[in-house]
Amino acid sequence: MRFCIKSASSVLIQSRAWRRCEAARTRASYLATSNDKSSDNNVDASPTQPSLDKGFNLLELASGIVPQGTIVKTVRQGWRFVWRRMMAELAPQDAQGNYRRPTYKFKGCIGQADYADEAGRYHLYVGNPCPWCHRCLLAVKLMGFTSDQVGVTRLLDEPTKASRGGWIFTDEQPDPLGSYDLRELYDKLDPGYKGRCTAPLLIDKRTRKIVSNESSDIVRMLDLARLGGSATTNRLRLYPEHLGASIDATNEWVYSLLNDGCYRCGFATTQQAYDQASAGVRQGLAKCEAILEKQAFLCADVFTEADLRLLPTMLRFDGAYAPLFRAGGAHLKLQSDYPNIHQWMRRCWKMPGVKESIDLEDATSSYFRQLFPLNPGGLVPSPVSASSLGLDEE
Fold this sequence. Notes:
The chain is of the alpha+beta class. It has helices spanning 2-14, 16-39, 58-62, 68-90, 131-142, 182-189, 215-224, 244-266, 271-294, 305-321, 334-337, 339-349, 360-370; strands at residues 122-127, 150-157, 167-168, 201-204, 209-212.
C-alpha cells in the first residue's frame, strides 16, 4: 500500500495537470481570502462556519487526475491487507479464512496420581468477559465450592498493560504466586512456554504446575472432585451417569455450532468462512429452540453440563456476538426471535450463583473495547444488562 501511494503521489506531482490544479487552488484561496476581508465590513455577514476534518482530502484534490475508482481500490486493498494480518495475530486462520482455535498440551486432572483430590491445593484463574472462563466459574458457583476448597482469582482484560495476551492481575485480585500478568505466571509454572497465555487456568499450588487451561476439562474434573468435601454432600451433579451419552452428544454440536461457531463468525476473514459459520449458528439456535420447547433444559428436566456450556454463549449473544461478530446475522435477538431459549435463560439466571458469576455489562462491552480489528473506531454501544435482556422479569 505504501508503494502504491508513493508512486501515485510521484506521478501527480510531476504532471502538468497537477500543477494546473495547484494553480487553481491558489487562485481559489486568494479569492476566498478577498471575500472574507470584504465580508468583515458587512454587518449582515453569516457567522463563521466551523472547520471540517476531511481526512487527507484525496478524493477532492486528486480525483480530477487519478480516477476515483483507483484511489478507492488502492486504499481498500491496503486496509484489507493490514486488517487480515491483524486478524491472524488475534485469531489463527487457515488458508480459507476460517478461525482455528489452538489446542494446548496441559492434560492434568484432579484425582490422578500427580494431582490428589485435596482441599486448598488448586487455584483457578478466570476473566469476566471470557465465556470459557465463565464456564469454570459457573461450575464453582453452582456446585457450592468455597474458597477454602478451591481458590479463584479474577483477571482484568487489559492488553495494553499485559506483556503477552490480555490478562493482568490487579491490586484487588492479586496473584497468590506474585505474578504481574498471566504471561509471568505461565513462565513461572512452565519455563520456556511459547504458546498463548490463556484463561481459564487451573494450577496446582503445591507442585507449582499447570493442571489444565481447557475449560471443558476443568468443568468435568470439578464435577467429579470432592476437594475435601464429604462423599455424602448433596450438591448439583453436572454429569449424572445416566445422562452421560446425551450430554456428550449435545456438547459436541453446541460447541461446533454455537460456542465456537460465534467466534468463527467474528474472526472469519473470507465471506465463505463467515457464511458457513453463520449458517451453523442459525442451525444451532433452531435446534436449541426446538428442544427447549419440549423440556426445561437441553438434556432433561434438570440442569446439566450441557446447559452450563451453552449458557455463557447465550448470555453474550445479544450484547456482543450478534452485533459485533454478526453471528447468525446481526439482526438476531434471542429475546424476540427465540422465546424458548429466552425462557431457558431466565430459568438458569434464577439458579443460585449464576447472577454472581458474571458482570454482563463489562462482559459484553469488553468485546467492543478490546477487539480493535473488529471495532477500529472503539465506539461501545449502550451495554446490555439483566434487565434489558429480560432476565429479571417475574
